[in-house]
Amino acid sequence: MSKNNEYALVTGATSGIGFELAKLLANDGYNLVIVGRNQETLNKTAEELKSYGVKISIFNKNLFYQDDVYSLYAELKVNNISPSILINDAGQGFYGKFQQTDLNREIDIINLNITSVVILTKLFLKDRAGKGLGKVLNLASIASTAPGPWHSVYHGTKAFILSWSEAIREELKDSGITITALLPGPTSTDFFNKALMNDSNIMEDWENFSSAEEVAKDGYKAMMNGDDKIISGLKNKLTVAMSNLSTESMAAHRMGEMQKPSQED
Asked: Pfam families in the record, alphabetically (predicted)?
């Protein structure tokens, strides 16, 4: 059953972890605002989510562009929608040695993974100010805990998301608004294909990757509990523990070996 006018805003909701999170929200009765670049995919996703008996509002926006991020919230205002939950799931990576990769593509990644998240969260917090209620789930990654040769910009963006999430969580501790960071490890979504990582060593372990459903359940539970962060999966908890015990150079070397092209072995 719908929670009347209570909405959750989910970026990246048309596939992978974001779609699974949207389903969990809908199952709990939250109306949804879903955002994506492809109108056809948005329409298809909305039809699937409507089966839960909730309202679905779709917004065709390209979160690589700041103007689209601002206009999203402006249109929410026009439609009298004030989400009580924000899930910043949309994000991409780009594979290769930094000196050889396309700079414009990496600027797009930074805009999507960091700039759009900062803007949406700022607007969300201003909108929720005085309401004393709100939840934010930011998709970090175990990539946030170690340098990532061959995937350096992505790792850097996720390190920002984790540090920033923990900082604003502290600022908001008496506000009734919670910030939760979700740290998945390798997950069986289209992320690696989009990042051009199919030839990376890490793909050799594909059959052992977490499912998007498993990761979403961990993140959803942590968000609803108001936890500060959750590392999804025991193997990933061990990976992070090893990174924490290593020097930065050791962690970078280990990650570089995992992520370099398999033909370089």
From this structure: adh_short (PF00106)
Per-residue pLDDT of the chain in tens (265 residues, 90 and over written 9): 555 689 999 999 999 999 999 999 999 999 999 999 999 999 999 999 999 999 999 999 999 999 999 999 999 999 999 999 999 999 999 999 999 999 999 999 999 999 999 999 999 999 998 898 999 999 998 888 888 889 999 999 999 999 999 999 999 999 999 999 999 987 767 776 777 777 777 667 657 777 889 999 999 999 999 999 998 866 666 666 666 666 778 767 776 777 778 775 4
pTM over 0.70: yes
Which CATH number covers residue 227?
Answer: 3.40.50.720
Residue 2 lies in a domain: no
Q: How many domains does the chain have?
A: 1
Q: How many CB atoms lie within 10 A of CB 19?
A: 22
Annotated catalytic residue within 30, 52, 95, 154: 154
Q: Which domain holds residue 118?
A: 7-264
Residue 154 is a catalytic residue = yes
